[in-house]
Specification:
7 helices; 84% helix
């Protein structure tokens, strides 16, 4: 197994892990949103509430190769096939985010107090979907993983 395969597998593992983290951070994030709506404040509470959005942005950075590890290994990670995978993953992510925000819009008309929670769920889906799509397609394209 060459350096290219090692770097690609590492990126795939990071994407799987980050998509799981997007979902796992929802618990503390939603709890913090509830506390903020109840009038509580504090640095830790706000930080946990914002981590949902930060995780979605981290997925974007990793898929596009903007993170530090991907920049160092760019020659091993960037090829035409990666561009195809990236485009498909981002399309799926956009559709997931658009669907989620459409649901949030409908919820905000009916129950405005639920909007922050619904937005957190839409952001988590918008982050997890492209990460999983990219990772699954990359795994399917690797002949040594079969």
């Amino acid at each position: 197994m060459g350096r290219r395969d090692t770097e690609q597998r590492q990126r795939r593992s990071q994407l799987f892990g980050l998509s799981v983290a997007c979902v796992c951070i929802l618990g503390p994030g939603l709890n913090s949103i509830g506390k903020i709506q109840a009038g509580e404040g504090g640095y830790a509470i706000v930080t946990f509430a914002l981590m949902v959005a930060v995780m979605a942005w981290l997925v974007l950075a990793l898929i596009h190769g903007w993170d530090g590890g991907s920049r160092k290994a760019r020659k091993y990670l960037e090829d035409e096939w990666t561009g195809v995978l990236r485009a498909s993953a981002m399309t799926w992510g956009y559709v997931a985010l658009l669907a989620g925000v459409s649901v949030v819009y409908a919820i905000s008309l009916w129950r405005p107090d639920w909007t922050p929670v619904a937005l957190a769920l839409a952001l988590a889906a918008g982050g997890a979907v492209p990460a999983l799509r990219f990772a699954f397609m990359d795994k399917a394209a690797d002949p040594e993983d079969e």
